Amino acid sequence: NDGGHDAKNLRVKLVLLGDSGVGKSCIVLRFVRGQFDPTSKVTVGASFLSQTIALQDSTTVKFEIWDTAGQERYAALAPLYYRGAAVAVVVYDITSPDSFSKAQYWVKELQKHGSPDIVMALVGNKADLNEKREVAVQDGIDYAEKNSMFFIETSAKTADNINELFEDFVDYATSRLP
Ligand code: GDP
Ligand code: MG
C-alpha cells in the first residue's frame, strides 16, 4: 500500500538526525508547541511527538516525528527510526563545522541504508547566531543540491523558518496524492 495515506488524512513519518546539541529537540518543540526552552534536556535514545496540520481543503497532514539522540552510543539505533521514514531531516549548527561534517555522515548513511524514496532535508539551525557563523550558507546550499535535498536555515530560538521547513513536506506529501 502507500503507507497508510489517503486523500484526506495524510501521515508523514519524519526522523530528525544530526549531532548532539544542534537543536533537533528545540526544532520539534518549536514546531509542535510553539515554544523554545533554553534549558531543555538532552534526548536519551529517541523521543516521539506528533503534530497534525489542517489544510484549507480539509486535508490533514499528521507528522509523526522521531527525534533521535545524536550521541555516538545511540548511532546503532538510528536505523530503527529512519527505516520506514518518508522524510529525514538532517540538522547541523551553523556555528559548528564539526556538526556540518556529521550531517554529511548522516546523509551518506541514509543514502546507503534508508528507503530509496526517502525525502531528505538539510537544516542549518541556530541562524540567530549569525555573528558566530562558521558554515557558509552557500556550503549548505551546494551540499543539499548535490544530494537532492531540501535546504533551509532555521532558528528554533526565534522561530525563523520553522514552519517553512515543515511546509516543504506538506507540499511534498500533498503533491504525491493520486
Ligand atoms: P539536540 O541535541 O540536537 O536535540 O539539541 P537541543 O534541541 O537539545 O539544543 C541544544 C542546545 O542548543 C540547547 O542549549 C538549546 O537551547 C540550543 N539551541 C537550540 N536551537 C537553537 C537556536 O535556534 N538558536 C540558539 N541560539 N540556540 C539553540
Ligand atoms: Mg535532542
Can you characterise this structure?
This protein has 178 residues and is α/β, with parallel strands linked by helices. It is 31% helix and 26% strand. The longest helix is centred in the middle third of the chain and has 17 residues, at 97-113. The two termini are 13 Å apart. Guanosine-5'-diphosphate binds at residues 18, 20-26, 38, 40, 43, 70, 125-126, 128-129, 155-157.
Describe the SSE topology.
Layout: E1 9-18, H1 24-33, E2 46-54, E3 60-68, H2 78-82, E4 87-93, H3 97-113, E5 119-125, H4 137-146, E6 150-153, H5 162-175
Parallel strand pairs: 1-3, 1-4, 4-5, 5-6
Antiparallel strand pairs: 2-3
The structure holds guanosine-5'-diphosphate and magnesium ion.
Guanosine-5'-diphosphate (GDP) binds at residues 18, 20-26, 38, 40, 43, 70, 125-126, 128-129, 155-157.
Which regions are unreliable across 5 or more consecutive residues at pLDDT < 50?
Answer: 1-6
Supply Rg: 15 Å
Q: Element order, helices and strands?
A: EHEEHEHEHEH
Count helical runs.
5
E-strand count: 6
Report the end-to-end length measured between terminal Cα atoms. 13 Å
Largest sheet: 6 strands, mixed
Helix content: 25-40%
Mean pLDDT: 90
Query: Which small molecules are bound?
Result: guanosine-5'-diphosphate, magnesium ion
Rough outline = globular
